[in-house]
Every structure is written in structure tokens, then in C-alpha cells.
């Protein structure tokens, strides 16, 4: 069926009047109904921390994906944790399965 395009709006708000406010709006690519994933790379060292170093740490993982793969799934070899750029879930026998609460701790 038809999937309407997604849009992203970013707006910065502050009580300060000492800066210009810029708004960026654009259409998002049409979402796929299914993606190809590959288990690549280890989970983040500090997954509960929003750490800007993660941007650099994930580059080798992103480059290790095979051609045509949409998402890399992070794993310690026994457990699947998260997607490199997304949350990860599985639909098995009609039931949505996600990682248990606290999996990243």
C-alpha cells in the first residue's frame, strides 16, 4: 500500500534572544517495508551515554557492511543488541520481540 513520505522538522528553542533561529524541513526517503540486516560489530562501550565519540567509533562498523545491506546489528556473539542506526526488533510467528528492559546496561 501507499506509505506517505515522512518529514523531519528541527527547531531550536531558547529563552535567549542573542542568536538567530534556523528551521530545517525536508522530506524523508520513503520507508521500506522490509530491510536487509547483517550482524556486524560489537555493542557500544557506553550505550547509556549519548557520547559523540560513537560517531567515529561506528565508522569501521558501517564500512564492514556488505553491499546491499541496510542496517548493521550489533552483537556480542551471543545476543543481538541494537541496530547501528535504528532500534531492532523481530516479528516471529506474528509476535513482535524486542530486547528485554535494561539490555544495554
UniProtKB/TrEMBL annotation:
It comes from Amorphochlora amoebiformis. This is Uncharacterized protein. Coiled coil: none annotated. GO terms for molecular function: catalytic activity. It comes from the Eukaryota. Signal peptide: none annotated.
Amino acid at each position: 500500500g501507499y506509505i506517505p513520505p515522512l518529514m523531519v522538522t528541527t527547531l531550536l528553542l531558547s529563552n535567549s534572544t542573542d542568536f538567530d533561529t534556523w528551521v530545517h524541513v525536508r522530506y524523508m526517503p520513503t520507508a521500506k517495508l522490509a530491510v536487509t540486516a547483517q550482524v556486524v560489530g560489537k555493542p557500544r562501550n557506553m550505550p547509556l551515554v549519548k557520547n559523540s565519540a560513537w560517531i567515529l567509533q561506528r565508522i569501521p562498523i558501517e564500512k564492514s557492511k556488505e553491499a546491499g545491506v541496510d542496517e548493521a546489528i550489533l552483537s556480542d556473539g551471543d545476543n543481538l543488541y541494537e541496530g547501528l542506526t535504528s532500534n531492532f526488533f523481530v516479528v516471529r510467528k506474528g509476535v513482535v520481540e524486542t530486547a528485554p528492559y535494561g539490555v544495554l546496561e
